[in-house]
Structures are given as C-alpha cells and as structure tokens.
Design brief:
alpha+beta; four-stranded antiparallel sheet; globular; about 90 residues
C-alpha cells in the first residue's frame, strides 16, 4: 500500500476487454464509476504517488487510458517511448 497525506485524483478510461476485471476486483479500492457503457468504463480513483497508478495502467495496455491528469498520460507515453527505443 502507498501512503501519503496528499492524493491525486485520476480518471481512467477502460475498454470492454478489461472492464469486468475492474468491476469485479478491488484493484482500485476507492474507485468511483463516472460512466459505464457496454464498451467503456470511466472511473475515478485517488492515488498517493504516480507509480501507484502507472504500474496498473502499464499492465493493462492497450485497454486502459489515463484521461486526467494529463501529465500522467504524458509520463506514461515517455516511459513507453523510452522502452521502445531500447528494444
């Protein structure tokens, strides 16, 4: 578990392929569903550190996207681009 006095609100867009997992499992214990359609789940969660959410998003690529904060999606893109350059 990650602990901090300050948290960051993160909004995730989850595609149908991963939706059932996030609805069934308590991967994000403080999640709040913002919108749900048959093909997409939009949810909000609070994290203490960037890596707390980035590790989950990396695991579920390409079925999950960070909608906000945008700096987290940009950070993820930078990490992935750096990885692709080394392979």
């Amino acid at each position: 578990n990650w602990f901090s006095n300050q948290t960051i609100e993160v909004v995730l867009e989850i595609k149908q392929e991963a939706m059932e997992y996030f609805l069934r499992k308590e991967t994000l214990p403080n999640k709040q569903i913002i919108e749900q359609t048959p093909s997409t789940l939009i949810l909000s969660t609070n994290v203490s550190y960037d890596d707390e959410i980035l590790r989950i998003v990396k695991y579920w690529i390409p079925y999950i996207k960070i909608q906000s904060p945008t700096y987290l999606q940009e950070k993820l893109s930078t990490i992935l681009q750096a990885y692709l350059k080394t392979t």
